[in-house]
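Thread: Newbie trying to understand structure tokens

Hi all, I'm a second-year student working on a class project, and my supervisor (Dr. K.) asked me to get a predicted structure for one chain before our next meeting. I've only ever worked with sequences, so writing a 3D structure as a token string is new to me. If someone could post the tokens and maybe explain what I'm looking at, I'd be very grateful. Here's the chain:
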Amino acid sequence: MKRILFTMWGLPVPAYTFFLCFSFVFCILGMVWYDRRSATPLRVRPDIGVWAFLGAIMGARLFYLVQFNQPLCQVFQLTGSGLVFYGGFAGGLVAVLLYARIFAVPILPLLDLAAPFVALGEAITRIGCLCNGCCWGAPTRLPWGIHFPRYSFAWRQHVNEGRIWADASHSLPVHPTQLYMTLGLLILFVALLLLLRQKGMWGGPLCGYLIGYGVLRGIVEMFRGDSAHDLLGMTVSQVISIGLVIFGVTLLILRQYACSTPVCNDTTAE
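---
Reply by user tm_fold:
Sure, no problem. This is what the structure looks like when written as tokens:
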């Protein structure tokens, strides 16, 4: 755990903020680079990253405030933790759809192009979660369990629950759920990139992301220690994950139906 990664010009740079910003810049540039190398480029410009970043940050912050019953006036207080991925996903999606509408970019090919890089971006950001100590796992006896230091989020939770004494130097060993997500998302990134390279697979990367991420997040939530199971015995993120999987499977079925018609063979569908 290392909340402050380094200092620049005498100012501390939080690890989570660094990895979040780095992931956006790296993945947007990667997406633009990949698009320009494709046979039928969408001519996506780097400024789409500004739209996605602002939409994602506002959505992530708003979702956090609503989920944890915090005052909505704190939506612009972006220091430290307080960002939820699903809120960021929704906010970023709305911003990208507005971008596609304004600049006349085909929506479905754009979402297909973005899907692998969204997975890669979160994989990088989860390293920031580990450094920040947020999104921690439940206690475990597995050999790869990790300890968080005194005054970390996990340590405070374990003290409040009476699991450790207040003078303990670290938390109980917990699941490294941040690394579970990073590993799973890297695998998903490679799989989606392979789908993206296949001709005639329009809609495939998008469906693959919705299903793959929904399954991954739903499983990892079982090992989280910071999420309340207050919706039918599940966390809020698990309920949303189920919705993503259902939506992704539905889109996949519709895609298969469309591919059974002559329209699917039209090159304009790419």
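A couple of things are worth pointing out once you decode it. The two ends are 45 Å apart (CA to CA). The first strand starts at residue 4 and ends at 8. Feel free to ask follow-ups in this thread.
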